[in-house]
Amino acid sequence: MNDKRNIQTVAPFLADDFVDLDEPIFNTDTYSAFLENNANRLGTFKKYLICKFHDSWVIDVNESIDKFRLTLNDYSTYVFADKIIDRYNLPIESDNIAFPLTIELTVNLKVEYNKVDDDGNLIQINQTQLDEYLYEQVTHIDKEKIEIVFHFWKSNIKDDKPGERIIVVASAKELSIIENQDQSWTEVFGDKFDDLYMYFKEQFTSDRFVSDQNECEKLIDEFEQNQLTNKRKPIA
User: Fold this and answer.
1) Around Cβ 236, how many Cβ atoms within 10 Å?
2) 3-class DSSP state for residue 139?
3) How far apart are CA 54 and CA 136, in angstroms?
4) CB 183 within 8 A of CB 35
5) What pTM does this model have?
6) Which helix (H) or strand (E) holds 57?
7) Between the ranges 83-87, 205-209, 230-234, where is the mean pLDDT highest?
8) Which residues are 74's β-sheet partners?
9) HEC readout, 165-233
């Protein structure tokens, strides 16, 4: 086994999806401190760590010589929107809405696609279809380079084959996030649910897990209860 090319050393946070581990090999507290210490370098991307893009489906991947652009349908916002549609019986088809967000890596770009064998060894492949974002690990940060190991699902539905996991190792000098969820939200709902949407975003950035129908239901209940409570407060 070549440790330099094994998932356990390349991205240990992701390893347990590929190999059986006798004991934990990754310290999430240490990782969280690493991210916090590099918050300025990570910028807006830090808001979505750890794994807040999980289950977001891939809208588009565009790669040129010095730019890698990954556009996702932000799953957390989508789930919340879907719950609002269901809760208030809105005549909106949730299958046709999306809340795009783009991860962009530029300058001194390097991107590598891999499969992972049963022993955890990375096997480099050509660029391939990516369908769903699963997880990520930021593995290196300095003034000249940010490296991120992305974990995707490739469905292979068109080829009538079993789905498979794809590891993409990407590094570049610059990392940026283009958030288009607010614009899409307005296009879908207008301004009717703006206050509720703001409450959702506050909860999202507070590290509360909101990418779940039941949690979104609770969040809406809380918001409505707060609204009722505020209406009942006497005016001084």
Assistant:
1) 3
2) strand
3) 9
4) no
5) 0.92
6) strand 57-63
7) 83-87
8) none
9) EEEEEEEECEEEEEECHHHHHHHHHCCCCHHHHHHHHHHHHCCCCCCCHHHHHHHHHHHHHHHHHHHHC
Structure confidence at residue 209 (pLDDT): 87
pLDDT digits (tens, 9 = 90+) for 159-190: 888 999 999 999 999 999 999 999 999 999 99
Q: Of the candidates 5, 4, 1, 7, which has an alpha carbon nearest to the alpha carbon of residue 151?
A: 7
| Start-end of H helices in 43-174 | 75-87
pLDDT at residue 227, rounded to an integer: 83
d(Cα 232, Cα 78) in Å, to the nearest integer? 32
Do residues 12 and 24 make contact, with C-beta atoms less than 8 angstroms apart?
no
Domain ranges within the chain, ordered by starting residue: 3-191
pLDDT at 4 over 80: no
Residue 192: C-alpha distances to residues 64, 188, 196, 204 (Å)? 40, 10, 9, 20
d(CA 54, CA 68): 19
Does residue 229 register a pLDDT over 90?
no
* Partner residues linked to 70 by β-bridges: 61, 103
